[in-house]
Write a structure and sequence with these properties.
The protein is α/β, with parallel strands linked by helices and 306 residues long. The protein has helices spanning 7-19, 22-29, 33-47, 63-90, 103-108, 110-120, 133-141, 203-214, 228-236, 246-252, 283-305, and strands spanning 52-54, 59-61, 95-101, 124-130, 147-150, 160-174, 184-186, 195-198, 222-225, 241-245, 257-263, 268-275. Helix 2 (22-29) packs across helix 3 and helix 6 crosses helix 11 (283-305).
Length: 306
């Protein structure tokens, strides 16, 4: 089998074909004329065929050279385009950022951050994957996502976490409920009203249980819902009241519902950026994290003003 040509040899072949002169081609390539002559001889020896007919005045492609020319052009074009794509990726002008997030975060925090990011990075694709906290941590740990947006992971996972938002726990009731007349309540309100609870295996339920313990309030939970939307639907149906987070309420957006702040204690779910220290992060992903922090600050300011 004949040996394949190198990229410099292909360049030399095409430059000589274009210039039709060893002297002019050597000048364009920045090499000596004898060096170019040796390169062409090496090419023809490797391929086992003459590529140029030459005399004292002319250099012309042979039939074999005519066959090689489009192949050489295509190979050099593919090479240049491939490395141009790679350079665009390295410089943050192309590629993708993979995000894993809680559904409530994906519906509230991500849209503004994505809009801001795509204005400054129009060539970057943003992939969004939604699930509850533990699966978000898992996909970041396994390298399926560059950034997770979720509550803190377990220390045993070895992931980095930087909090960017405190998602307050709030009382959720119907808008026509007498409780809605007050903007704030303490946790004792749940002693006398049916409490629609989240399932014990959810992270939100553990936060709620700790708040009840701090307030010294004992409740007999109803239903134990797996999804916040189910708990909200039961509230709309008049089956009781519940506790969700501000971002979750923003995601559900049921017109029949309202929320009230909860005091004594104030409780919140920290939401932050989850990354894997064992994996390198390209500049677009770091830029997206910056935009997420900007959006989180804006949401926090809006929450304080409401």
């Amino acid at each position: 089998m004949h040996q394949r040509l190198t990229l410099p040899q292909l360049e030399a072949f095409l430059q000589l074909e274009t210039s039709a002169s060893f002297r002019d081609a050597a000048l364009q390539l920045g090499v000596s004329q004898p060096a170019l002559s040796r390169t062409i001889q090496q090419i023809e020896t490797r391929l086992g065929v003459r590529l140029f007919d030459r005399d004292t005045r002319h250099v012309r492609l042979t039939a074999a050279g005519e066959q090689l020319r489009p192949i050489a052009v295509r190979l050099l074009k593919d090479y240049e385009e491939s490395f141009s794509d790679f350079e665009a990726y390295v410089e943050g002008r192309a590629g993708r950022v993979r995000i894993a997030a809680l559904p409530s975060v994906a519906a509230t925090l991500l849209p503004g951050a994505v809009r801001r990011f795509r204005q400054s990075h129009p060539g970057i694709t943003v992939d969004i994957w939604e699930d509850v906290g533990a699966p978000v941590h898992r996909v970041v740990e396994e390298g399926e996502a560059d950034i997770g947006i979720a509550p803190p992971p377990a220390e045993t996972r070895g992931l980095n976490f930087r909090a960017i938002y405190q998602d307050a726990l709030v009382l959720v009731c119907r808008g026509d409920d007498p409780l809605a007349k007050s903007t704030r309540h303490d946790w004792t309100v749940f002693r006398e009203r049916p409490f629609i609870a989240m399932s014990p295996d959810t992270g939100l339920r553990s936060l709620i249980d700790r708040a009840f313990a701090t307030a010294d309030v004992t409740v007999d939970p109803l239903f134990n819902c797996k999804q916040p939307a189910t708990a909200a639907a039961l509230v709309v149906a008049g089956q009781g009241i519940t506790v969700l987070t501000r971002l979750t309420i923003e995601q559900i957006r049921a017109p029949e519902l309202t929320w009230c702040a909860l005091d004594s204690p104030k409780a919140s779910r920290p939401i932050g950026l989850v990354t894997c220290p064992a994996r390198s992060m390209m500049s677009p992903a770091r830029d997206f994290m910056r935009d997420l922090e900007i959006e989180a600050r804006a949401l926090a300011l809006a929450a304080e003003g409401s």
